[in-house]
Specification:
The chain has two domains: about 1-75, 2-Layer Sandwich (Alpha-Beta Plaits), CATH 3.30.70; about 90-290. Helices cover about 65% and strands about 10% of the residues. The protein contains eleven helices and four strands, in the order E-H-E-E-H-E-H-H-H-H-H-H-H-H-H. A hairpin with a 4-residue loop joins strand 2 (about 25-35) and strand 3 (about 40-45).
Length: about 300
């Protein structure tokens, strides 16, 4: 359930209330005086997700400023009330999240660097627990889903920005892993007889069917997780196909293992492509199903 709050003049808010009353997914529409001295009027409404994008488009058409309305998502507790059979995408929400996550902010790069340190130690010491920890830290799910949203909505600038953010993050992870390995080597802190080819993750240099299928499934899961606010948990599934390969690539470069570094780079590139394909496909399927349902429902 979504809750819409709109502030404005009495004349404009009368039009807003009238428009919202005509939306099939809007209910409990109220109009109250928000400030008797300023003449500001408040209009509120409960919206089903089907009506959210139409409501926001109507507000923009009526000239309501972005600062004068808020759309809030909340979970309603309604015992013995049957829930709607499906939840629709709110494209304005997805687009807003995509724009926010398409910029390589310092916090994002710091998390990717931390993931590189943890994953590099996991590769060096063949410690699977550290690898999983690095996957949990990495936020690379966010720019990947932003790329998918930009592709579906045909926002070229969004796709370019998110792709740059993803590349910067993965490069940061790889660079940190390389620097850490060089430091451990120079200070004689690498395990005795260490060879990157003997790492428990040596399979990351080989392309096979799992390289494609796992990343494809993870991309679809990541997009669904973003929509349901479960992205922090499913982000581990995304990172299983990116962070280990990035760290392995960094360690291999530091050790001068060119062949293994090239193999890890190939695996990483394929994984990113399949993650993007999986996430984009998930969005396209949902949009097609929503359009089909809307066409089947017909005019109200």
């Amino acid at each position: 359930m979504l809750h819409l709050r709109v502030f404005g003049s009495a004349r404009v808010m009368a039009e807003v209330a009238e428009v919202l009353s005509g939306l099939g997914g809007a209910r409990h529409i109220t109009r109250t005086e928000a400030g008797h001295r300023t003449g500001t009027v408040l209009v509120t409404a409960d919206l089903h997700t089907d009506a959210a994008d139409a409501a926001l488009s109507s507000l923009r058409r009526l000239g309501v400023r972005t600062d004068d309305f808020a759309l809030v998502r909340f979970d309603a507790i309604q015992p013995l009330v049957r829930r709607p059979h499906r939840a629709s995408l709110v494209w304005a929400d997805l687009l807003g999240q995509a724009g926010e996550h398409a910029r390589p902010v310092a916090r994002y790069l710091a998390f990717m660097a931390a993931a590189g340190i943890i994953a590099a130690y996991g590769v060096v010491y063949r410690n699977q627990i550290l690898i999983v920890g690095a996957m949990a830290v990495s936020p690379d799910l966010l720019p990947i889903t932003s790329i998918c949203i930009g592709l579906v909505l045909r926002r070229g600038r969004l796709v370019a920005g998110a792709a740059w953010t993803l590349a910067a993050g993965l490069f940061c992870t790889c660079l940190v892993a390389t620097a850490l390995t060089v430091f451990l080597d120079l200070t004689d802190l690498l395990p005795s007889g260490f060879a990157v080819g003997e790492s428990a993750l040596r399979g990351l240099t080989t392309v096979n069917s799992s390289t494609f299928i796992v990343a494809l499934a993870a991309g679809a899961a990541g997009m669904l997780a973003l929509e349901t606010r479960a992205s922090s948990a499913v982000g581990v599934a995304i990172s299983v196909t990116t962070i280990p390969a990035s760290a392995y690539l960094g360690v291999a470069v530091a050790e001068g293992e060119v062949d293994k570094a090239a193999g890890a780079a190939a695996v990483l590139g394929i994984n990113v492509a399949m993650l993007t394909l999986g996430g984009t496909a998930a969005l396209l399927v949902q949009r097609a199903l929503a359009r089909r349902a809307a066409a089947g429902a017909g005019p109200a």
